[in-house]
Design brief:
Number of domains: 3
Number of helices: 18
Number of strands: 26
Distance between the termini: 44 Å
Structural class: alpha+beta
Largest sheet: 13 strands, antiparallel
Strand content: 15-25%
Shape: globular
Length: 738
């Protein structure tokens, strides 16, 4: 029984890895999708069997060598394709079996080597490059050294051995081409694969159709390749793969990424014709060579750009819907992708003296800059303003807004008498910091001899750099901040924004927390200082477990659900529910922020994300806004279908938060209202979260139409780990609080 208990989880993991590998050819990363696709390979049993032999051989390597999960997935994918290719060329016998196993081990070595080379160098995906190399070598070697009947009788593009023939038309060619990705150019195989893609990602299905339609048009009508027997059916999947990879998997979906993908498809048609003419001499098929070549070239070219404009590369390759949602939420929270995030370089509340495109000096190529000073009752000074010390900001600490290296300083210039300027030294005393991405942050007009850092020193956010002064082109004490491409003074500026600040509008209508903000002239901001009383209870270390009783207040059908914090192999913290649904989160710059919701519907996790998905950790914060995914709301099937039809890549909701300290009960009450219009109906949800100073979120509730859910914390604890003791507090809510 003990051996069986140990064997079963291992069997399930290996089975999941096998089926997931079949789906990753089309970037689907799904066990269920892989099951259906794997079945299609057995329409030609010889091919299906060789694929299984290869992937089982690759799995056996896990017993002897340990690879990272990412590398292991890569070698499984390429091993599977090598096995399928050998099955398409040679009839199964003892020698072919040996060839398949040997080729698999060769594929593993090539995959591991290329993975290390690509990730350490250009940070490019390896894709199916190991398969191309090993398949070509194996097939050529086997033809010279083995006595084995070729299944294809010498002409790879001749499908007469399939005993099927259809009249050529677009859909038949399309389906046959999808099947040919797995060396089974059968209309049934292709139809099943397309349905699987459609269920997994409608946008990938759209891209595959668009890419194939454009590529086949270029191939047949411009390059006149319609006379080559079955060339389109055997190679057209390259067009679909190029469109999928560049249209939504490696790039964030959008109009420009679609245009780039279609341009790549056109070029891949030219590459396909050139390669097939060359490879036909050796009786080798083109395989996925056009797809791999074009995709790598385009990704490398996009990475070489110096600007941060569209189309944007996805931080991690994934489904277009996931990439789009993560990018949409990141833009809402962190500002535009071409904008550099900075923290406020001071303590307390400062006023914007001159903003972007300001009236004085922030013009043309220097338009992206901010000037700050302090106002009290509408004035920047006291006692007449004749002396520098009369100005409220003079001599106050200037902090580093970023992580970076100090590459240049100026500290010896005198401070100007109020009203005077030094036009020979525009920036006055300054500190110039180089960021990891190559940009440079300049803080200027500093007080004479106040610079505390040296050239070459590394600084971190919040570290004191100098004091605010009045040097350079500065008629009164203020602080100038800008971001520029180059290290040369006077270089053109680039867009930037401030993170985690409390924004005070010019009409003095009250402060609002903003995770990303570009303040305007006349507005005031202050950094949101972290409060330990909020930070400690909401801190979520690895192994933290929160068990809730979840029930419908009308029916009282209680469920007990646990949320647990896990750390992925990529170093990502995720909050995982019992159902397997999860969301990633970060605790940065004084805010707890959740993103990348994955997995099935989960009432408790979705309630948590609506209630606490963006939570500032500063006690002075009273209100803020966010825009999480609309699918967190308890929408009915008609509403969900409507949204998916009109917004196939996803959309956000208008979420408004407020928080107050309830002194009588000694907790924070965090309320939020979430709105989205679906057709003519306004969906409206009210959510409350009770945050205890010791235990964190101990109660949540949601009211949305007929839905009234409530979750009460029943148990909180930490999973035991080697060197870390586990602990649990359980009982009734009031007992937990005590």
């Amino acid at each position: 029984m003990e051996n069986r208990a140990q064997f079963l989880p291992l069997f399930k993991k290996n089975a999941a890895d096998i089926f997931r590998t079949y789906s990753t050819v089309f970037f689907l990363d799904s066990v269920a999708a892989g099951v259906f696709i794997s079945v299609t390979t057995f329409l030609i049993p010889n091919i299906g069997i060789m694929g299984i032999v290869a992937i089982l051989s690759a799995l056996s390597v896990r017993l002897f060598i340990t690879f990272s999960q990412q590398t292991f997935e890569l070698l499984l994918l390429n091993s599977l394709l090598v096995g399928l290719a050998i099955g398409a060329f040679f009839t199964l016998n003892g020698k072919v079996l040996v060839l398949t196993v040997a080729a698999t081990f060769f594929t593993i070595a090539v995959s591991a080597a290329l993975s290390h080379l690509f990730t350490q160098g250009a940070r490019l995906p390896v894709l199916s490059l190991p398969f191309i190399l090993v398949a070509a070598i194996s097939i050529l070697a086997a033809r010279k050294s083995m006595v084995s009947e070729s299944v294809l009788n010498g002409n790879f593009y001749d499908r007469s051995w399939l005993n099927i023939h259809y009249e050529n038309n677009f859909w038949i060619n399309f389906f046959e081409s999808l099947g040919a990705t797995y060396f089974s150019p059968h209309i049934v195989a292709g139809a099943v694969i397309f349905i699987v893609i459609l269920f997994r990602s409608r946008y990938l299905a759209f891209l595959s159709l668009s890419g194939f339609a454009l590529g086949s048009t270029v191939l047949n009508n411009i390059l006149d390749q319609d006379t080559v027997i079955d060339l389109l059916s055997w190679t057209g999947f390259n067009f679909a793969l190029v469109a999928m990879a560049l249209g939504g998997v490696f790039l964030i979906p959008g109009l420009l990424s679609f245009i780039v993908a279609m341009l790549a498809v056109v070029l891949s048609a030219f590459i396909l014709v050139a390669m097939q003419d060359f490879l036909f001499v050796y009786e080798l098929p083109v395989l996925v060579l056009p797809f791999v070549f074009i995709t790598l070239v385009f990704l490398l070219a996009l990475r070489a750009r110096e600007d941060r404009k569209q189309p944007w590369l996805a931080p991690q390759p994934g489904l277009p819907e996931v990439n789009f949602e993560n990018a949409r939420l990141a833009k809402v929270r962190n500002g535009e992708f071409n904008s550099i995030p900075l923290l406020a370089p001071f303590y307390g509340e400062w006023h914007v003296y001159q903003g972007f495109n300001g009236s004085y000096t922030h013009k043309a190529q220097w338009q992206h800059a901010l000037d700050f000073y302090i106002l009290v009752d509408g004035k920047s000074f006291d006692n007449g303003g004749n002396d520098l010390t009369d100005y409220f900001c003079y001599g106050l600490p200037v902090l580093s807004p970023v992580h970076g290296q100090v590459i240049r300083i100026q500290s010896g210039l005198p401070d100007n008498v109020p009203g005077e300027v030094d036009i020979k030294n525009n920036w006055g005393n300054f500190v110039l910091i180089r960021l990891e991405g190559g940009f440079h942050v300049l803080v200027a007009h500093l007080k004479k001899s106040s610079v505390l850092v040296k050239e070459g020193a590394w600084v971190k956010p919040g570290e004191r750099l100098a004091a605010c002064g009045n040097s350079g082109r500065s008629p009164q004490p203020h602080l100038h901040v800008q971001v520029q491409n180059d290290a040369e003074l006077g270089s053109p500026t680039v867009p930037f924004h401030l993170q985690s600040i409390i924004h005070h509008p010019s009409d003095q209508s009250g402060g609002e927390y903003r995770l990303a903000n570009i303040p305007l002239t006349g507005e005031s901001i202050e950094p949101a200082a972290i409060d330990e009383k909020l930070l400690d209870p909401l801190h979520m270390p690895v192994g933290r477990q929160l068990s809730y009783e979840l029930f419908n207040e009308n029916e009282r059908d209680a469920q007990f659900v646990t949320l647990k914090v896990e750390l992925t192999l990529l170093g990502e913290f995720r909050l995982v529910s019992d159902s397997g649904a999860s969301a990633a989160f970060v605790e940065n710059n004084g805010v707890l922020a959740f993103y990348d919701r994955r997995g099935p519907k989960d009432k408790l996790l979705d309630l948590w994300l609506l209630a606490n998905g963006l939570t500032p950790l500063a006690k002075v914060v009273q209100k803020w806004s966010d825009s999480p995914s609309a699918y967190l709301l308890p929408l009915n099937k008609v509403q969900t279908l409507w949204l998916k039809s009109l917004r196939p890549l996803g959309c956000g909701i208008d979420s408004r938060y407020s928080r107050k300290w309830v002194s009588q009960n000694q907790y924070w009450l965090q309320k939020s209202i979430h709105k989205i219009r679906v057709g003519r109906v306004l969906c409206f949800a009210e959510v409350e979260s009770v945050i205890d100073p010791f235990l964190g979120c101990k109660e949540m509730s949601l009211r949305c139409g007929p839905h009234e859910w409530k979750a009460i914390l029943k148990e909180v604890g930490l999973s035991t780990d080697e060197g870390i003791p586990g602990w649990t507090i359980s009982g009734k809510p009031q007992e937990i609080s005590e």
